[in-house]
Amino acid sequence: MPELPEVETSKRDLELFFSGAPVSGIKFHEKRIRVGDPSPDLPGPGWLGAGIDRHGKTLIMGFSRPETHISPGENAPARPILFLLSRFGMSGSWRRIDSRANPPHSHLEIRFSDRNSRLVWVDPRRFGRIELARDPRTAHLLSQVGPDALAISPEELGALLSCTSRPLRAALMDQRLLAGIGNIYMAEVLFAARLSPFRKSSSLIPSEVRALWTSLQAVLQAAIAEGGSTIHSFSREDGRAGGYQRLHLVYGREGLPCAGCGLPVQRTTLEARSLYYCFSCQPGVRTDSRRMPSEDFLDGERPDADRIDSVPQSAHDRKGNKDARSFPFSDTSRRDPVAR
Question: pTM of the entire structure?
Answer without folding.
Answer: 0.82
